[in-house]
Specification:
With 169 residues, the protein is of the alpha+beta class. It contains three helices and six strands; from the N terminus they run αααββββββ. It starts with a helix and ends with a strand.
Amino acid sequence: MRAILAPRGGAPWGGRQNGRVTDTAPGSPPAAVPDPRSSAANAARIAARYPRRRTGRLVAGLALAVAAVGLGWLLFTALFHANPPVAGQVQSFRVTGDADVVVVLRVDRPDPAVRARCTVIAQSEDHRRVGELVVEVPPGSSRIVDLTLTVRTLARATSASLDGCAPAS
């Protein structure tokens, strides 16, 4: 077994090849092959195999621009919606029959001189909207106004909620 694995002919590279591998046919002049040990040849070979990426700075610039626009939008939205001119909340509701719901609505206006319009809805068990009431809140002297409303319904309601409040023009 040792004789099979032993190098043949005293070749310095282990004897498993018969000679150097070239691109030329036998009998033709040898082609100019760069010395594989030179760094310029290695650099050229690597550059040919792995081309440069073209997207690094472009992608970074686009990502920075998108991030700046997104952050600006987030700040604007947060500041704009942090202090709405009119806010409302359903404090309580009581279903008094198959055709009506009594709702206590609290409206908060930082500026009491602002006229507000709020929409209260009543929903049935299957979440259908069975009643709706638009309420006008006139300008007043107090910031917080509590209103007791009766919402007429088409069918028996199981819940009441506020659809929204906005300044009225």
